[in-house]
């Protein structure tokens, strides 16, 4: 709803009231419509101030209403009535003005923002366009190029950037409402026509056509098949080339085609999933709302390789004092230089001073006596990590949390090396750790709820999307990646090329196919993991066939490339060829194609044409199948956790919702049928055998994804 009050004699104050973000629900739209009508018809009211309760202007249209039939007054007529009114309306923006919230502010004749406010049109991230006039008014206010940037990326801007762009008229560090009221009084009686954005001409680049064509090209490349960014460009083109009313018609048509699209549903599911994972739970019954996080005043990072440096930067950027430890002076100096330059670069990007004073570099573990939490980021080597944990346990305060940044190792074994195993959790960051949004918080059987709550809270402070997961090899993300990667190399044995597999995955929406990613991260990473698992190297039993390991099919191709020194981009060749070591542009490599042919003939394998459909079904459904097993094992609390991990950490296209959402969208019976088909064709690949949870869900009539947790619960209760 909206509250109407009269203040300072002649000012009508309309306060949006719909916690937690004052979203424009039907009741709020009704309240604003009624209040604006009342203010305009009251002869004693000279001007209107519009604000939001609890320091938040407005988070936009109520996304929860999108799944239901619309009721109440429309947003567009409500906004148009504000702009057309004969009394000045001033938006007092605190907290956020996002989406429909900013569109509401754009209909006001003046905008005053608190310096901490954030503004933006993030509809594109929900698979939509700003369809309450945002695509038409913003270009008329700040020009086509700047508006196009904000609308196609959905990025939020600070109040200061909004002032520079011309979105707001004033920024204040005073009481925004008081200033808005003073301002409203000062402008009352002034002509309103120049303040109505719908009547303005947008400022356009001189060569508008080629500018928009270039923008469309870039957006299509970045969009990876998403339709909303393309519609954003089309809508801004309409703003640049058509009168306002016709532009609004275009905006409405484009929104109509997006509103009920599968992509919009998927992206809105991602939005809510991201929030669902914050309400974490553990099989023990510990949850986000019954476990209290401890404050972290000072932290430490041990091991300043690529991951450790990124983690240290994240901590400093969040304002947390850090002790950054390396084992030797020389390595410490190199790391110090690298961390300092990242901090300086990042600070420059944000127009701020680097917080260099918050970091203390050291080679002395005794410097960790005072820290509240340590993140160990040494090499992925269990013996080394155990050694570090033993030392930490004797040096740190008894109540210090000890976290390991590992991508797959057993958190429980590390906990066992300490005096207080309940204070040990995994914090699996993704490289580069100061950029990537995802954090897997891994709890072992002995991790205390307080330790999990503290790591989750710290992740939030670092600006990460944190997901609590159970302890198993590879946790959630990497465990699901293993069958996906295995299928990709099996497909090479059967006749595909890396180019075909990558193309299929990139057309699906991944930024890079599996082989390009492998070249980028280095083939030796997986090689080391496989050696550790006894799949290759000295751990393999003598006489075991090259293509069978531990009783199931194995593909030695990646190991063979590693043995040849083809480790990917860093050596200038891997699955592709690069112009030099460290080169970035992948080219097809005839050597590799010959090598594959020789390999097949050596092993008596018949190559057959592999279709794009088979690539997608085998790679994606085997990954999804592992996701069902993870749910069954209680390693992830729900499908939303898995999907959030894949969207934020593994490049899964958000417009496809995540792997588990995708399974639901394709249809669980179809996924089951395909897995049955492929597992019959390849009985030596157990990962293709459908998981029992998938079968149960299909037997239960393939319930919608938000009901899967109930089926998982019945599985657990029967165990
Ligand atoms: C044909 C029809 C024409 C229609 C025209 C529509 C035009 C319009 O352009 C469309 C839009 O505005 S699209 C909208 C464009 N706007 C956006 O995309 C903004 C989306 N929102 C955000 O980015 C963040 O929530 C904020 C930055 C606002 C706050 O961040 P924070 O402080 O970290 O808080 P938090 O944890 O994130 O959220 C707290 C709670 O609020 C909930 N909730 C939030 N927004 C909601 C909404 N709009 N709605 C409903 N609920 C919303 C959220 O789910 C959570 O609920 P839970 O039950 O507790 O889990």
TrEMBL record:
Q: Pfam families under this entry?
A: 3HCDH (PF00725), 3HCDH_N (PF02737), ECH_1 (PF00378)
Entry EC number(s): 1.1.1.35, 4.2.1.17, 5.3.3.8
Q: Which reaction does it catalyse?
A: (3S)-hydroxyhexadecanedioyl-CoA + NAD(+) = 3-oxohexadecanedioyl-CoA + NADH + H(+); (2S,3S)-3-hydroxy-2-methylbutanoyl-CoA = (2E)-2-methylbut-2-enoyl-CoA + H2O; (3S)-hydroxyhexanoyl-CoA = (2E)-hexenoyl-CoA + H2O; (3S)-hydroxydecanoyl-CoA = (2E)-decenoyl-CoA + H2O
Top-level taxonomic group: Eukaryota
Classify the main location.
other
Its pathway, per UniProt, is:
Lipid metabolism; fatty acid beta-oxidation
Which UniProt keywords are present, listed alphabetically? Fatty acid metabolism, Isomerase, Lipid metabolism, Lyase, Multifunctional enzyme, NAD, Oxidoreductase, Peroxisome
Outline the extent of the 3-hydroxyacyl-CoA dehydrogenase C-terminal domain: 474-578, 615-702
Q: Which GO terms describe its biological process?
A: fatty acid beta-oxidation
Query: InterPro entries per the record?
Result: 3-OHacyl-CoA_DH_CS, 3-OHacyl-CoA_DH_NAD-bd, 3HC_DH_C, 6-PGluconate_DH-like_C_sf, ClpP/crotonase-like_dom_sf, Enoyl-CoA_hyd/isom_CS, Enoyl-CoA_hydra/iso, NAD(P)-bd_dom_sf
Q: Which GO terms describe its molecular function?
A: (3S)-3-hydroxyacyl-CoA dehydrogenase (NAD+) activity; delta(3)-delta(2)-enoyl-CoA isomerase activity; enoyl-CoA hydratase activity; NAD+ binding
Keyword Oxidoreductase: yes or no?
A: yes
Q: List where in the cell it is found.
A: Peroxisome
Question: What's in the GO CC field?
Answer: peroxisome
In this chain the 3-hydroxyacyl-CoA dehydrogenase NAD binding domain maps to 298-471
Its assembly, as annotated, is: Monomer.
Q: Which family does it belong to?
A: In the C-terminal section; belongs to the 3-hydroxyacyl-CoA dehydrogenase family. Belongs to the enoyl-CoA hydratase/isomerase family.
Please report the name of this protein according to its UniProt entry.
Peroxisomal bifunctional enzyme
> Which organism is this protein's natural source?
Albula goreensis
């Amino acid at each position: 709803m909206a509250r109407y009050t009269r203040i300072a004699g002649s000012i009508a104050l309309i306060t949006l009231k719909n916690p937690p973000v004052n979203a424009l629900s039907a009741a709020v739209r009704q309240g604003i419509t009624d209040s604006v009508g009342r203010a305009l018809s009251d002869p004693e009211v000279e001007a209107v101030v519009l604000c939001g309760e609890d320091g938040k202007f407005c988070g936009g249209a109520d996304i929860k209403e999108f799944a239901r039939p619309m009721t109440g007054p429309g947003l567009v007529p409500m906004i148009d009535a504000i702009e057309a009114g004969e009394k000045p309306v001033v938006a007092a923006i605190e907290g956020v003005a996002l989406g429909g919230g900013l569109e509401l502010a754009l209909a006001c004749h003046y905008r005053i923002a608190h310096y901490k406010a954030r503004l933006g049109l993030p509809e594109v991230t929900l698979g939509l366009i700003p369809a309450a006039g945002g695509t038409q008014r913003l270009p008329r206010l700040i020009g086509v190029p700047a508006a196009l940037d904000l609308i196609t990326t959905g990025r939020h801007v600070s109040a200061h950037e909004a002032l520079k762009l011309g979105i707001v008229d004033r920024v204040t560090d005073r009481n925004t409402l008081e200033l808005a009221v003073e301002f409203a009084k000062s402008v009352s009686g002034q002509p309103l026509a120049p303040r109505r954005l719908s009547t303005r001409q947008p400022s356009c680049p001189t060569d508008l056509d080629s500018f928009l064509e270039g923008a469309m090209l870039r957006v299509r490349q970045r969009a990876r098949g998403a339709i909303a960014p393309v519609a954003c460009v089309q809508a801004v083109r309409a703003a640049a080339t058509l009168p306002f009313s016709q532009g609004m018609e275009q905006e409405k048509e484009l929104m109509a085609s997006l509103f009920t699209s599968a992509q919009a549903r998927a992206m809105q599911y991602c939005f809510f999933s991201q929030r669902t994972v914050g309400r974490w739970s553990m099989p023990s019954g510990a949850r986000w709302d019954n476990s209290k996080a401890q404050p972290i005043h000072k932290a430490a990072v041990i091991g300043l390789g690529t991951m450790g440096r990124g983690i240290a930067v994240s901590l400093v950027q969040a304002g947390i004092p850090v002790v950054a430890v390396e084992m030797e002076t020389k390595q410490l100096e190199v790391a110090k230089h690298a961390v300092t330059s990242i901090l300086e670069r990042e600070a420059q990007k944000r127009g701020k001073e680097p917080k260099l004073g918050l970091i203390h570099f050291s080679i002395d573990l005794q410097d960790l006596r005072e820290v509240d939490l340590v993140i160990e980021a040494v090499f992925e080597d269990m013996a080394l990590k155990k050694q570090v944990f033993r030392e930490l346990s004797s040096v740190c305060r008894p109540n210090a949390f000890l976290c390991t940044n590992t991508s797959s190792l057993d958190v429980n074994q590390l906990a066992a090396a300490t005096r207080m195993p309940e204070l040990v959790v995994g914090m699996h960051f993704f490289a580069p750790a100061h950029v990537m949004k995802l954090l897997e918080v891994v709890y072992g059987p002995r991790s205390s709820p307080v330790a999990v709550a503290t790591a989750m809270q710290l992740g939030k402070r670092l600006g990460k999307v944190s997901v609590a997961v159970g302890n198993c090899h590879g946790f959630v993300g990497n465990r699901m990646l293993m069958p996906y990667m295995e299928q990709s190399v099996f497909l090479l044995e059967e006749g595909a090329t890396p180019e075909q597999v990558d193309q299929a995955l990139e057309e699906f929406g991944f930024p890079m196919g599996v082989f390009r990613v492998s070249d980028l991260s280095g083939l030796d990473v997986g090689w080391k993991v496989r050696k550790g698992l006894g799949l290759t190297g000295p751990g393999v039993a003598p006489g075991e066939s090259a293509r069978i390991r531990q009783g199931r099919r194995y593909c030695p191709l990646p190991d063979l490339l590693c043995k040849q020194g083809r480790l990917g981009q860093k050596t200038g060749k891997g699955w592709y060829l690069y112009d030099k070591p460290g080169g970035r542009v992948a080219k097809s490599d005839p050597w590799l194609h010959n090598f594959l042919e020789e390999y097949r003939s050596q092993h008596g394998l018949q190559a057959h044409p592999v279709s794009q459909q088979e690539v997608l079904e085998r790679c994606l459904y085997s990954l999804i199948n592992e996701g069902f097993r993870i749910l069954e094992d209680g390693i992830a609390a729900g499908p939303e956790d898995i999907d959030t991990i894949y969207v934020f950490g593994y490049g899964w296209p958000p417009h496809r919702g995540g792997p588990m959402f995708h399974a639901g969208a394709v249809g669980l019976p179809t996924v089951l049928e395909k897995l049955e088909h492929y597992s019959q064709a390849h009985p030596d690949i157990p990962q293709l055998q459908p998981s029992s949870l998938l079968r149960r869900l299909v037997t239960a009539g393939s319930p919608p994804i938000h009901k899967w947790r109930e089926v998982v619960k019945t599985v657990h209760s029967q165990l």
